[in-house]
Amino acid sequence: MNDVIDIWDKPEAKEVFLITGWRQWADAGSISSGLPQYLIKQSGAYKIGEIRSDGFYLFQIPATHDLVRPPIQFEKGFPKSLETPRNELYYAGDEERGIIFFTGDEPHMNPERYVSSYLDVAESLNVKRIVGFGGVYGELPYAKERMLSCIYSLPELRGEMEGLSVNLSDYHGGASIGSYICRRAGERGLEYVGLYAFVPTYDFSKAAQIGNVIRIENDYMAWLGAMRRVNYMLKTRFDLADLESKSERLVSELDAKLDELDGLAPQLDVHDYMSRLGEQFDEVTFDPLDEVWEEEFKRLFDEGDSD
């Protein structure tokens, strides 16, 4: 086993999947850092291992003060807490199917060693497919379903991904940790699927009295859209009722926030701006029930033919 990997409880399920996210650059709406943590709590998953942080993180960058320094908290002179980078593995499941959750910090250096260690973990735990999350901000209507972009590690996955109502990414630019892993996973013949949500943000810098930007820190609508696809893709049964409720509350809170903003800065004509965004936006709804019903009808007819 790789010398930075420490696994003390190996799942024995017949099928194992890995759901993963990072505290990282591509984390709009906290979909990468927040959603896996939410799923860990919801599923009652327990910790089974970690990738040690040795050699992957900087302590400081000259002239940047505390940009990458680990936060520490003292209380009456005593160091009460020190937040260091963590890369942890959790597990929930039974003898048939299991889900490993990975939550980590995007590395500052030695990316090849980090990615190799991560993929070594997936191989050693017999993971059938890895699903990673990421998010990017954009000017989008907040009350409509989020657009999702998709990357995948093996060419034969394309047809399946096209059935998930996602945009297949044509991105060119700096690599996130998920896109880096996607490439290296394919070279090992491993299945990796990355789901990237587009999260609403609005720049109102013209109105100095209200600040510069409104953005959604925890975009539960993006989390919900991603998890609907995960449930369908992996045949998992994560209960999404709570995310549906959180999404409804999010829309209500943003309605109130924009009403308040309209009162503070009527010259912005916020509601007209949102209306124009909605008119320009092509909402894509993912409804796998159509295919489920189609498969069920086919099964019933097949059974009828056999009688």
Keyword list:
307 residues, alpha/beta, ten-stranded mixed β-sheet, two-stranded antiparallel ribbon, 35% helix
Element string (H = helix, E = strand): EEHEEEEEHEEHEHEEHHHH
The pLDDT mean sits at 90
The total of beta strands comes to 12
Distance between the termini: 54 Å
* Class per helix and strand makeup: alpha/beta
Please state the overall shape, judged from the principal axes of the Cα atoms: globular
Residue fraction in strands: 15-25%
Helical content stands at 25-40%
Unreliable stretches covering 5 or more consecutive residues: none
Radius of gyration: 22 Å
What do you see in this structure?
The protein has helices spanning 34-43, 111-124, 158-162, 177-187, 220-234, 241-264, 270-280, 289-306, and strands spanning 5-7, 15-23, 46-51, 72-75, 78-82, 88-93, 97-105, 127-138, 148-152, 167-168, 192-203, 213-215. With 307 residues, it is α/β, with parallel strands linked by helices. The radius of gyration is 22 Å and the shape is globular. A hairpin with a 2-residue loop joins strand 4 and strand 5 (78-82). The strands form two sheets. Strands 1, 2, 3, 6, 7, 8, 9, 10, 11 and 12 form a ten-stranded mixed sheet that branches. The longest helix is centred in the last third of the chain and has 24 residues, at 241-264. The N and C termini lie far apart (54 Å). It contains eight helices and twelve strands. Helix 2 (111-124) crosses helix 4 (177-187) and helix 5 (220-234) runs antiparallel to helix 6. The model has no long low-confidence stretch (mean pLDDT 90).
